[in-house]
Amino acid sequence: MNFECKCCGVCCSNFGDADHKYLPIFEWEVEEYKKLAKKKNVKIGFKPVKYLLDTKSGIVFVYLYGMTTEPCPFLKDKKCSVYEDRAIICRQFPLLWTAKLHIGDNFGASCFSECPNFNCKKEFDDKFPIDEIQKEEIDYYLKETYEGCFYSAALSNTIGRKILEIIKKHDIAGDFKLEEIDEKELIKYNQVPFGKFLRLKGFEEDARELEKIYIS
User: Are 96 and 157 in contact, with CB atoms under 8 Å apart?
Assistant: First the structure.
């Protein structure tokens, strides 16, 4: 059975559980959504959801944002009014990960979002009842079942992994001195998107490398 969106609007109306009431989006998508919201005259809100303080510069860089306006302001009559410009997270739904790019040992139920019209977890468990499965075999199934969602998930995963790779590289080199801070402390610091932060620190090549993935 292949996944097919029924345009019920549920995924556009509920953004996760009580601790994660936001739609995760990347920094360049925030700017695009702000432009679309202005064009359509709708209100939209965002907040930093993944960030670190660089104590060397006193700057908090944000590497993932959350759209907090729920239901999505672009949802009209159970359909997306910005479908061609929708965020990657929307394009990849209900897939969170591909097997090859999954961070962790076991690919399984936690790698899918809930969809009321397609039981992703049951479909997966029925297809792969044992734990010892090759990642290539899983990804073949995901491509066949979820088609375009798979490729969007792969893009999202690639961007996320590249961001973490760049952070780790500069942390090890001593270019950053990183510290986790509580959300309540954010107001104390200058907050900038990760790409802009890299440029402020003089790492133009890393910023461009990320942009190449964004526009691929």
Answer: no
Pair type for strands 23-25 and 59-67: antiparallel
Counting beta carbons within 10 angstroms of the beta carbon of residue 112, is it exposed (0 to 12), middle (13 to 18) or buried (19 or more)? buried
Tokens, residue 33: 């959504």
Cβ proximity of 97 and 111 under 8 Å? yes
What residues does each domain of the chain span?
Answer: 10-214
- Three-state SS for 93? coil
48-78, pLDDT tens digit by residue?
999 999 999 999 999 999 999 999 999 999 8
Per-residue buried b or exposed e for 163-173, using 16+ beta carbons within 10 Å of the residue's own CB: beebbeebeee
Q: Three-class SS of residue 187?
A: helix
